[in-house]
Amino acid sequence: MTTAQDVACAADLLRAGELVAFPTETVYGLGADARSDAAVGKIYALKRRPTGHPLIVHLASADVLAEWAAEVPETARRLAARFWPGPLTLILRRAAGVSDALTGGQDSIGLRVPSHPLARALLAAFGGAVAAPSANRYGRVSPTSAQHVREEFGSDAPFVLDGGDCSVGLESTIVSLVGEPLLVRPGGIAAAELEAVTGPLRRAAAGEGPRAPGTSRAHYAPATRLVMVAGPALATTAGPASAVLARRPAPVGFGGLLWLAAPAGPVDYAHDLYANLRRLDHAGAATIVVEAVPQDPAWEAVRDRLARAAAACGAEDSA
């Protein structure tokens, strides 16, 4: 069980330029002092992350936005008032003095205020901003528990604050307010909720708008090849060397290695997705077969993650 002493130790490590893994409501983050280029460089090295990929900076509150953003549009203020603390990242024009190490060399910065109590306690104890992508190797499945972080990095794992399982289970929604408002990455907040504040919000086309975390075509991938198929094709696609993530129970006589029946609803499915993919990845299968999820808006973030995972494995969605 994580204690106040653990949080104080983590804050001391951040001040010393070290990395700390900590829970947010979305996934576990790999944190460093956002004002230290040397510390931020350790994130890139441990994740094996290309340096042109920007990071998200976690803040204690919206009150410090002006320290990081050159301008805060009224739309940003309304979104922050409605959704912070919470799983929303805003991309704004960066303030003077914000390092290229955080922004991938762009004139913009991704900012959010997390709601997880341990993340908030760490930010308060540290007294500064924390740069934190997901606590996993670049392009791999994000961690939603402290054990996932430890498994991911092994003997290289940093100090980990254990806050249990993340409540959302998918990364934050990203909205760019550099120029025209754009939905850059679907996530823990549905587009319809955002549009109640912003009005109609256009999805960014491939390559449009600032570069943002988790928007590569291939991302969020297990080591095992992953394919997506429509439900009726499961029986013919899942062979004896397969592990399956389905939206239905295993059929009588299933001869594969592992069949996981995912939750029926989009919120619970999203919460369990990365843990399920990690379990399937450990099954020793030649292929992970995932039943395609519905096309309605409630499933947008899940569809996004599965499509990128399949692309990373060199497989196209056949649903």
Named at the architecture level, the CATH assignment of the largest domain is Alpha-Beta Complex
Overall tally of structural domains: 2
The CATH top-level class label of the largest domain: Alpha Beta
The major beta sheet can be summarized as: 10 strands, mixed
Q: Beta-strand level of the residues, as a percent range?
A: 15-25%
Topology summary:
Blueprint: H1 4-15, E1 20-23, E2 28-33, H2 37-47, E3 56-58, H3 74-83, E4 88-93, H4 100-103, E5 108-112, H5 117-126, E6 130-131, H6 146-153, E7 159-160, E8 173-176, E9 182-185, H7 191-198, E10 202-203, E11 225-229, H8 234-237, E12 242-246, E13 258-261, H9 266-281, E14 287-291, H10 300-312
Parallel strand pairs: 1-7, 3-5, 4-8, 9-10, 11-14, 12-13, 12-14
Antiparallel strand pairs: 1-2, 2-6, 3-6, 4-5, 8-9
Helix pairs in contact: 1-5
